[in-house]
């Protein structure tokens, strides 16, 4: 990571290693939030100060965040780890707030009104997890699995806000169809 001052045409800092524990690994899923950059690397998530490049915190895991990545909402980090757990971390400290048994690999997470929605790559189900408590609200099985054993939920999962006092919708795809479900809130 580096920070270049374009006005002064000079580097503030350059080539700060973001993945020191795993030098041959990729840094992925970088997100900026409150003057900090958050990212994952092979088996860790860490936070660096954008202005200095200094590491603020790092949390090691036994697996990586793979294609699932993470999101930051309502002052919390949410991510699906390949170790079959969904995590909620404090973005200031990296402290674990909660951990819920989940699906392992998953689609990217959608967030709507305090609920996390995603499709589990490990179980093929559509998940809804309460963002405050970390408890599952439901795990839906694809209606298409009865027609074709490979038509579990995968691909795209999008939470769409409701309008005019209506609940939102969660749209999830299988290999055969797209389904819309009423959002929990």
TrEMBL record:
It comes from the Bacteria. Pfam families: PQQ_2. SUPFAM superfamilies: Quinoprotein alcohol dehydrogenase-like (SSF50998). Residues 49-173 form the Pyrrolo-quinoline quinone repeat domain. This is PQQ-like beta-propeller repeat protein. It comes from Fibrella aquatilis.
């Amino acid at each position: 990571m580096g920070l270049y001052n374009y006005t002064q045409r000079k580097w503030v800092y350059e080539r700060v290693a973001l993945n020191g524990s795993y030098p041959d690994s990729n840094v992925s899923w970088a997100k900026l939030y409150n003057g900090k950059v958050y990212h994952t690397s092979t088996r860790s998530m860490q936070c660096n100060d954008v202005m200095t490049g200094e590491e603020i915190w790092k949390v090691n895991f036994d697996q990586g965040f793979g294609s699932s990545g993470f999101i930051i909402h309502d002052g919390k980090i949410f991510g699906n780890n390949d170790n079959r757990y969904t995590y909620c971390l404090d973005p200031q400290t990296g402290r674990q707030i909660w951990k819920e048994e989940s699906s392992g690999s998953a689609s990217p997470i959608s967030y709507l009104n305090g609920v996390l929605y995603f499709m589990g790559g490990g179980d093929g189900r559509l998940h809804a997890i309460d963002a405050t408590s970390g408890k599952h609200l439901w795990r839906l099985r694809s209606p298409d699995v009865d027609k074709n054993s490979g038509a579990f939920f995968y691909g795209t999962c999008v939470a769409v806000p409701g309008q005019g006092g209506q609940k939102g919708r969660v749209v999830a795809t299988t290999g055969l169809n797209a389904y819309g479900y009423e959002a929990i809130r």
